[in-house]
Specification:
303 residues; alpha/beta; Arc Repressor Mutant, subunit A; D-Maltodextrin-Binding Protein, domain 2; 2 domains; 5-stranded mixed sheet; 4-stranded antiparallel sheet; 11 helices; 45% helix
Length: 303
């Protein structure tokens, strides 16, 4: 069977409908429909129930789901093993969000290379949804992100505690959100926590789904927004930006997600070195009580 059909099937399941799956795969909706029909023809059973509210799986589709995941994962493992460079015994693919590479994964890479010189390392970057999808498919072995999802075969572990703080280029900014505020999209948990804390603020003028890259926009346009404290701490220390006093702070821990089927010794080394680097991050943030307020306790469960 074409592995591409299995990938499309998994994308439809993850997206919930054909339109979103087409957008994620950067193809037309008709292409997605054609692939779905082809897959159903090969399986000899309908696997999708289409409706105005989305797409659900038939009982046959539910059964095929675990096989499709295994098919794609085995294929990726085979492809990676065949592509291992000469002189290395195996490979490890690690991916993280943009904001988690600086001073975290970039420090982990040389430490890991020193501990496991016979392992070829491959580093990638992306947003959580893509990283989780690639982990399920077996493309990525270890992922570091702020908003993971629980998936079969994957283990999620808190790497370090962080928090989202409101910063501004203006030194006398107030916690009242005004036209200078930029809503940075940090995921559904932040959406819910933000709406709960700012119930009267429902129509942001600018929304950025760029993560830490949105900080450049805030700096260049003298705006304000929420960012992980780890990302902005050095700029706060230099006085380039300012922490908005009395503004709510939201818990925002970082997580490591890994494939439980990885070679045990290799996984142990990778996680050990990652935890060492993460510990340094935690120590770097120990002065959080001085820099800002306590996290919003009522919303701790949302993070």
């Amino acid at each position: 069977m074409d592995i591409g059909l299995a990938r499309t099937f998994l994308e439809i399941v993850a997206a919930g409908n054909f339109v979103s799956a087409a957008r994620r795969l950067n193809v037309t909706q008709s292409t997605i429909s054609m692939r779905a029909r082809s897959l159903e023809g090969q399986l000899g059973r309908p696997i999708f129930i289409r409706s105005k509210t989305g797409t659900e799986l038939t009982p046959a589709g539910q059964q095929f789901l675990r096989y499709a995941t295994s098919l794609v994962k085995v294929w990726e493992e085979a492809r990676q093993q065949v592509a291992i460079p000469a002189g290395y015994r195996t490979s490890l693919v690690v991916a993280g969000q943009y904001s988690l590479w600086d001073r975290l994964l970039l420090k982990w890479l040389p430490a890991m290379a020193a501990r496991a010189p016979d392992v070829a390392l491959r580093a990638e970057v992306g947003m959580p949804a893509r990283l989780m999808r690639e982990m399920v498919e077996g493309i990525v072995d270890i992922g570091v992100m702020y908003t993971p999802q629980l998936r079969p075969g994957l283990q999620v572990e808190t790497l370090f505690e962080d928090e989202l703080v409101l910063i501004s280029v203006e030194p006398k900014a107030t916690p009242q959100l005004d036209s200078s505020y930029v809503f940075i999209d940090w995921g559904p948990e932040f959406h819910a926590a933000h709406a709960f804390t700012y119930p009267d603020y429902s129509n942001p003028g600018v929304v950025l789904s760029l993560g830490a890259l949105g900080l450049d926009y805030v700096l260049e346009n003298r705006r304000s927004g929420y960012f992980p404290r780890r990302v902005v701490k050095s700029m706060l220390d230099r006085g380039r930006i300012h922490l908005v006093p009395d503004a709510p702070v939201f818990p925002f821990p970082a997580y490591v997600v890994y494939d439980t089927s990885l070679e045990a010794d290799l996984l142990a080394i990778a996680l050990e070195e990652l935890r060492k680097v993460a510990l340094a991050v935690d120590e770097h943030l120990e002065d959080r009580e001085i820099l800002g307020t306590e996290p919003t306790r009522a919303l701790a469960g949302a993070g």
